[in-house]
Amino acid sequence: xxxxxxxxxxxxxxxxxxxxxxxxxxxxxxxxxxxxxxxxxxxxxxxxxxxxxxxxxxxxxxxxxxxxxxxxxxxxxxxxxxxxxxxxxxxxxxxxxxxxxxxxxxxxxxxxxxxxxxxxxxxxxxxxxxxxxxxxxx
Length: 138
Hints:
- The structure is a single chain.
- It contains three helices and six strands; from the N terminus they run βββαββααβ.
- With about 140 residues, the chain is an alpha+beta fold.
- The chain folds into two domains: about 10-35, no CATH class; about 45-135, GMP Synthetase, Chain A, domain 3, CATH 3.30.300.20.
- The strands form two sheets. It has a three-stranded antiparallel beta sheet, with no helix packed on it. The chain has a three-stranded mixed beta sheet with strand order 4-5-6, covered by helices on one side.
- β1 and β2 (about 20) form a beta hairpin.
- α1 (about 45-70) packs across α2.
- The longest helix is centred in the middle third of the chain and has 23 residues, at about 45-70.
């Protein structure tokens, strides 16, 4: 197996702390999500970062799968919503809702591309069987 690239982020202070990527592109405070953001909560939450990572990873995989199938796609959109759900007292698990828009191609072809992209997305592979996922093709 060949490493193509590496990403590195350092967290200090946990859910009331700061994260910074090695290249400086990501440099923000982190706060514990409570359901409503208050003025003293600056930056982002782990759930927002996970949703952003999943949405961008899946969307990138959509373009890859479309290209492999000789299908031109553009103006795509992937919305990822992450819910932290309590499965037992004090034990949290993520639930992921994905809404995918592949405009300009027929529904059957779009569904095929989405199904293949979802199966091949590195984050899907990394989290398979670890959370409930709902996917909607818009």
